[in-house]
Amino acid sequence: MELRIDKLLAHMGYGTRKEVKKLLKSGAVKVDGAPVRDAKTKVRPDEQIVTVWGETVEYKPFIYLMMNKPSGVVSATEDAVEETVVDLLEEEDRAFSPFPVGRLDKDTEGLLLLTNDGQLAHQLLSPKKHVPKTYFAVVDGEVTEADVAAFQRGVVLDDGYETKPAKLVVLKSGLRSDVEVTITEGKFHQVKRMFQAVGKRVVYLKRIQMGPLPLDPDLAVGEYRELTDEEVGMLKQYRPETDEKKGT
Ligand code: URA
């Protein structure tokens, strides 16, 4: 794997890209003993020794990204026909081989995590963990208190599966309703099929929260950023309520 020295150092916590550029200019950074001043220099951190002021940079291979997924791209790493969420990443981020943590439908927008940390991905996706995911949806039809009660009980999907209780909050009810729905499972097209079960159709869907992590409101559709160390820590330590109650 090869990536730009400024990206590597920023990734490793040596400051912003701008600060790292200054650091490079100062001559503090060496690769295999030779000073490197050009931010564009490519390095292979798994093979070469990078030092800052003589201290070796311990290479951390993980990357954690939050994307505000746009509609029209598929949640996959590769696809023969469709554009994928990984295609939207800068080459230097793609170099870490991140994959999407779970799937959003092609026409669904919003919070999508991408990482190469399989263990964390597994923790967040495991059906046993019941990690809550909250969606904003626009629904064709009037969403009623009866629907709220039905979601709370669990609804039967078209394949006979009975969903776990879901929290439905009606933000605006009318011929078109705005709602927020929180589910703890990840069945195929789950939110759309839950509304289908009560005779309604989702016309717009956006994920706004996953576990403890809300979608960053500063991310425009199609944009992404690295998670902060604090956010990664929050995700790693996250234990959903239902998980704690397990076995009681
Ligand atoms: N439920 C859906 O129907 N689609 C998604 O993309 C996510 C949840």
UniProtKB/TrEMBL annotation:
Residues 3-61 form the RNA-binding S4 domain. Its EC number is 5.4.99.-. One of its GO terms (biological process) is enzyme-directed rRNA pseudouridine synthesis. InterPro entries: PsdUridine_s_RsuA/RluB/E/F_cat, PsdUridine_synth_cat_dom_sf, PsdUridine_synth_RsuA/RluA, PsdUridine_synth_RsuA/RluB/E/F, PsdUridine_synth_RsuA/RluB_CS, RsuA_PseudoU_synthase, S4_RNA-bd, S4_RNA-bd_sf. Keywords: Isomerase, RNA-binding. GO terms for molecular function: RNA binding; rRNA pseudouridine synthase activity. SUPFAM superfamilies: Alpha-L RNA-binding motif, Pseudouridine synthase. It comes from the Bacteria. CDD domains: PseudoU_synth_RsuA, S4. Belongs to the pseudouridine synthase RsuA family. This is Pseudouridine synthase. It comes from Geobacillus thermopakistaniensis (strain MAS1). The lineage of its organism: Bacteria, Bacillati, Bacillota, Bacilli, Bacillales.
